[in-house]
Amino acid sequence: MDNTSNIERTESKVELRVMKKKALFFIILTFFFSYLLAATYYILGGRINNIGFIYMAILYMFIPMIMVIILQKFIYKDSLKILGINFKVNRWWMIAWLLPLFLALLSFGISLIMPGVHYSSGMEGFIARFSGSMTSEQLELFKTQIASAPYLIFISTLIQGLIFGPTINAVAAFGEELGWRGFLLKQCSYMDFWKMSLVIGIIWGLWHAPIIIQGYNYPQNPVIGVFMMIGFCVLFTPLIAYVRIRSGSVIAAAIMHGCLNGTAGLSLLFTTGGSDLTVGSTGLAGFIAMAIVNIGLLTYDRKYSKKPVM
Description:
Strand content: under 5%
Shape: globular
Strand order of the largest sheet: 1-2
Number of helices: 11
Number of domains: 1
Structural class: mainly alpha
Radius of gyration: 20 Å
Distance between the termini: 33 Å
Order of helices and strands: HHHEHHHHHHHEH
Largest sheet: 2 strands, antiparallel
Number of strands: 2
């Protein structure tokens, strides 16, 4: 009995060391090549309002997936399927699809009660927020579209978010999710849910730093925005990790991530005032919205779930 227990403890320690080593290799490789890409783009003269930024950002999103494939297939000779790649649809896929929309609308409502923030049918706040990331031609075209039918912009953004979110956006988001909620989540599975979410959230947030500092998400406050993005990722990670675990699929996480990217703009469309630190999904309003949903999810998990995760 004692020998068996000692062997099991030794095997457990070895397995834990391997998991930590895998996680560290993944983080180092992902950060190195991601930061290198963003720095190269900037050094060569690329800026956030150049069309090239979109292509750079898309490639940036696929770097975690590329690193996972290199590690999992070519270094550790292991299967990718064990990282949660399956298409068995269940109710959590529906939640992955609709929860980001709920978060965006809740963030919009909370934004309106922030000091100095008002409802604006002309979308002045949205235009001011993203004018720096558009060319002058794109900005004038957008203003013309808004002037003719502002609510059509809302409807089209909503439809695009719900259609492109789980499809086109999800493909790009999968590039991240195979890394964060596939590989890294598996290597951190020895932690409890909240510690795992905190660790992955901080790492995920820091990974965004090179594009945030260039003005993405927080064009008015790019430096503070780096820390805001870490906060955003820390708050969003429990939600997407919970869906990933409950659904049993990293594909569901990619859908949720894609829908988040597709619907987040709804939280800003009809606001004016405030700043990128206070309004919208990535501002303080969004943080409060995510905190509320986290509390709701925790309550559900503790009181109604047969197999609690949190």
